[in-house]
Input
Amino acid sequence: MAKPLLAGNWKMHGTAKSAAELASQLAGYAGEKPEIMVFPSFVSIPAVVNALSEHKDIAIGAQNVSHYSEGAYTGEISGKMLTGIGCSHVLVGHSERRTNNAEGNTLVAEKFAAAQQSGLIPILCVGETLQQRQDSLQLQVIKAQITAVIEKVGLQNVCNAIIAYEPVWAVGTGETATPEQAQQVHGFIRAELGEHGKDTQLLYGGSINADNAASLFSQPDIDGGLVGGASLEAEHFMNIAQQLIERK
Ligand code: PGA
Output
């Protein structure tokens, strides 16, 4: 069974100072924790690395990475730059980037490949829109999103990464997939990965909070969560982390 993991996506919130404070608060929680990971904005990463310098049990990732390794790409950030400042992970294909920045499956696959080549562990985000769910296309959409990456890097490399199922209609909306809806997709992804995907961490994301976390985490193929809004407050996030550790 995959190890429990809770990731906080801080999106474009706060400042370097407030990000460092939040990181210090998380580090202050004693006791048993699942694997914890935080995704501050690019410019807040050094402050968070500094705040967590004595807390290596909290991993730090970026929210995006260039698909290029180096060169004349104004405004882009390479994987090597991220590992160079202490990142171990990166989000790839988050629905907000797919929607707001026109990132399609091909570009997402290229970013995934670039991330792994530079030594980062990608969290590949997949998920269907409301319209696609209403048309019962969710499994087809998710299959296409994952297949594009498998075709680029091979199945084993996808199994070595982390996958987050985040239905677009649940991200930042306050609406959550039911545990059964989430498990259907997670079970499908697990089956698509086959034999080598048994230990691949599959996260659910989309309006997770302290009230709905336990029922989602009770599902057999949900290994943890990718939390947005509820990750911005240390106590709320750690409450969710506790529920992951105590899941039934
Ligand atoms: P949310 O965001 O928890 O605020 O819905 C999740 C995400 O975007 O990863």
In short: Residues 5-245 form a domain with the TIM Barrel fold (CATH 3.20.20.70). The CA atoms of residues 23 and 48 lie 6 Å apart. The mean pLDDT is 97. DSSP finds eleven helices and eight strands in the chain.
